[in-house]
Design brief:
The protein is of the alpha/beta class and 226 residues long. It has helices spanning 4-19, 24-27, 42-48, 58-61, 64-75, 90-104, 122-129, 196-210, and strands at 33-37, 81-84, 109-116, 154-161. It has a domain at 4-117 and 153-176: Thiolase/Chalcone synthase (Peroxisomal Thiolase, Chain A, domain 1, 3-Layer(aba) Sandwich), CATH 3.40.47.10. Strands 2-1-3-4 form a four-stranded mixed sheet, with helices on both faces. Helix 1 (4-19) crosses helix 5 (64-75).
Length: 226
């Protein structure tokens, strides 16, 4: 009765620990935080439609909250453990929560990630009816030909730590997190439509708070909605 999203996220967390040169037994009982972005519940919805196959594990096995909680349970981590659902931005909100926990000293190590699996046609039907999905099957967010977005699935996890962390020795260092900025569009023509002004203000504040000149950026990875 376990949602495959839970199992898949457990697997990528283990891989992230190995990549970071960390042993799970060394971290057991420590104040590691887990911050996950997730929003889809296709598997649980399918079970709910057939009560005859429901068992005692259906609730914990299909709760979004348990995606993060199960990781903390399996590895015996005592830090904050939360799953955040803000739809497409869930993983970035999870990253922001992890950054705050690290910055405040609440944790020295944070595992951050996201998981998404598409297991039912209903979401495709609904998004298509709302004209959100691209009929051409292409994300063209910065093109005048943009006609919607394309859904994706998978799971990812990575390990963050404070620069002054002394409790463990890490493996490869892939980069530094300088800043995470968040805002929302407020009132727009449609609840699903973003505000270009709000996005502009967010980017400007993020550059300012991170003390980065936009001219120095070499690569930008953007959300694929178009």
């Amino acid at each position: 009765a376990m949602d495959p999203q839970q199992r898949l996220f457990l697997q990528v967390v283990w891989e992230a620990l190995e990549d970071a040169g960390l042993r799970a037994d060394q971290l057991a009982g420590s104040n590691v935080g887990v911050f996950v972005g997730a929003s889809m519940t296709d598997y649980g919805n399918s079970l709910a439609n057939d009560p005859q196959i429901a068992d005692g594990y259906i609730m914990s096995g299909n709760s979004l909250a348990v995606i993060s909680n199960r990781v903390s349970h399996v590895f015996d981590w005592h830090g904050p453990s939360m799953t955040i659902d803000t739809a497409c931005s869930s993983s970035l909100f999870a990253l922001e929560a992890a950054a705050k926990a690290l910055h405040s000293g609440q944790v020295e190590i944070a595992v951050v990630g996201a998981t998404n699996m598409m297991l039912a046609p209903s979401q495709f039907v609904g998004f298509s009816a709302a004209r959100m999905l691209s009929p051409t099957g292409l994300c063209q967010a910065f093109s005048e030909n943009a006609d919607g977005y394309v859904r994706g699935e998978g799971a990812v996890a990575f390990v963050l730590c404070r620069e002054d962390a002394e409790s463990v020795v890490f493996g490869p260092d892939y980069g530094r997190l300088l800043h995470v900025g968040l805002n929302t569009s407020g009132s727009t023509v449609n609840i699903a439509l973003p505000s270009s002004e709000a996005q502009y203000e967010l980017l400007q504040s993020a550059y300012r708070d991170a003390r980065i000149d936009p001219e120095d950026l070499a690569f930008v990875e953007a959300h694929g909605t178009g």
